[in-house]
Amino acid sequence: MSSIADIHGAGLGLKHELIPQIQNLYQTSAISNIHFVEIAPENWIGAGGRSAADLAWFVERFPIVCHGLCLSLGGPDPLNIDFLKQVKQFLAQNKIPLYTEHLSFCSDIQQDKPGYMYDLLPIPFTEEAVKYVAQRIRQTQDLLGQRIAIENTSYYVSAPISTMDEITFLSAVLSEADCDLHLDINNIYVNSINFNFDAENFLKQLPSERIVYSHVAGHLQLESNLLVDTHGENIIDPVWVLLNQAYARFGTFPTLLERDINIPPLPELIFEIDKIAKLQAQHQMKKARVA
Question: Are strands 211-216 and 113-121 parallel, antiparallel or unpaired?
């Protein structure tokens, strides 16, 4: 099985339309900066036929990260134990060392039956929520037999009962659960605009020892003070600046380019992958000179 140490450099979210393009360019310099890929286990567990063959092809050639969509760590319904057992088996079968999930909820109980929603909804920033979510993260880690990383999420309305700010809540959950951080750079920027806080100051307060993985992406600007985290646009300059600041402060953690909609041809995505790799190389050179 691969180890987390095998997840390094720049990565790309594996969408079905990108699979033949990557396969056609494999072992060429065009994709030399794609060091790993990410998949959502919900889209691949139980896959057969061509999908299973495609997954096997990538397992043999790239380290893989799993980024979950439906665990609903902050939801009111019990954790889906059967699903977690499937995830555990899937990780082992496909040599996947890292599983991450969102610090949010996407489920609700209706007439004693759990249902899933399309959106990832924010958790109230309270002490009670810290303990509730942390217990569910610990339960998840115990069931999987490994640590997980949780992602700071974008949100568009804050719960009126919140008693702390986002960075305090995030840090408290990480500490209480003793889990790792999946750092989403774009989400910090989106939330900083939508809720008028300083993104760099948020970055400075993160517990650096818990960062194992990162996302960077584009977003949609609806108004001057309203951004939507679509993963459907090119990354804008302020997000690149924030990623650069994160590398300067924390080192060059593995960073994945997210693109979920409006997916362009692979060469256009490679342009942003190469930019991630270039930033990482610059910071690694600086570190080497200091050493």
Answer: unpaired
Distance between CA atoms of residues 119 and 106, nearest Å: 6
* CA-wise closest residue to 155 among 100, 212, 197: 197
Residue pLDDT tens, the chain, 291 long: 578 889 999 999 999 999 999 999 999 999 999 999 999 999 999 999 999 999 999 999 999 999 999 898 988 889 999 999 999 999 999 999 999 999 986 645 444 555 444 456 778 999 999 999 999 999 999 999 999 999 999 988 877 789 999 999 999 999 999 999 999 999 999 999 999 999 999 999 999 999 999 999 999 999 988 999 999 999 999 999 999 999 999 999 999 999 999 999 999 999 999 999 999 999 999 888 886
Q: 251-279 burial, b if ≥16 CB within 10 A, otherwise e? A: ebbbbbbbbeeebeebeebbebbbbbbeb
Residue count of the chain:
291
Q: In order of start, what are the domains of the chain with their CATH numbers?
A: 4-290 (3.20.20.150)
Please report, in angstroms and rounded to a whole number, the separation of the first and last CA atoms in the chain.
32
User: What phi and psi, each to the nearest 5 degrees, are found at residue 140?
Assistant: -60, -45
